[in-house]
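for the record, two folds in this file. i put them one after another cuz i was lazy. first one right below, seq on top, structure tokens after. the second one comes after a little note so u can tell where it starts
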Amino acid sequence: VVDYLDALNWVESIGGVKATIARSNQSLAHIEKFVAENDWVDFLAKDPALRSNSSVCLTVDTSPENVKAMVKLLDKEGVAYDIGAYRDAPPGIRIWCGATVEPSDVEKLLPWMAWAYEQVTAA
């Protein structure tokens, strides 16, 4: 119960439910900009109306082996952990953008994703 109360107090301290939604939307906006600027990455959910603003799933225009290598590189560099797509999903990247994640951290991840893509596709 104490953890639940702490969570509710945190939500209240940042501005309530509207603020939590705004944080997730801001993180999603960073990713939308990144996807628009890079032709090798796209949203798994093509229809924006169907996209989650908290569990953002991306496809990567490379082999499944390269996607796994990207995920491993990002983990090895200490940039992102457990961001590979779910086992039953197409190979890709899954980025948690829930309210507990700073939108600025999502923004910082994106150049690293580009770096990892370049590393695994350079050969």
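(here's the note) second protein begins now
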Amino acid sequence: MLETLKRWLHFTSLYFGRPRWDTGISPLELVDFLESNPAGRALDVGCGTGTNLVTMAGYGWDVTGVDMIPIAVIKARSKLKMKGQTGKVIWGDVSQPLKLREKFDLILDMGCYHSLSLQDRESYRGNIQRWLQPEGTYLIYAHLPKDLASTHGFRDADLCAFSTFLLLDWRQQNPETRSDGSLGRPSVWMKFHRAKDD
């Protein structure tokens, strides 16, 4: 509980400005997916200020975003409205029970999972399993751990845990590219899908 509160305070303070990851541009990995797949229902977990919601809606997707930081939710709703797009943005913690009635064809996570505690990761994965349609896609961007002792980042144990209900389609590992063009910490993009008869 204390760790969750610290995370909430940390991210709240960042969203009163412009967080370094909030570039206002959707990544090529997401755009490539949108250009090669039919539109459906999409969920962005840890949606921040809604950049990717706007992009997905622009490709015809029915979009829902969730974020635990109220100011990010307000900014995301405003961004959708300013761009003339429709969508839902919900205030909530994706590692806790959320009453989402829909199931989604695409779930996107850009940098949410890797900051969760190990306990919160377990409940998060349970949510993903409940929310993702059979044959749906789970697309995730995450930092990798700095060392074996680090709890921040997507670890081999996380891959094993997701693999109990998802199938890995591809994995692309690269250093993070910062807004000034410099290279940051090691990171990974992964695309999973859920089996048809899961």
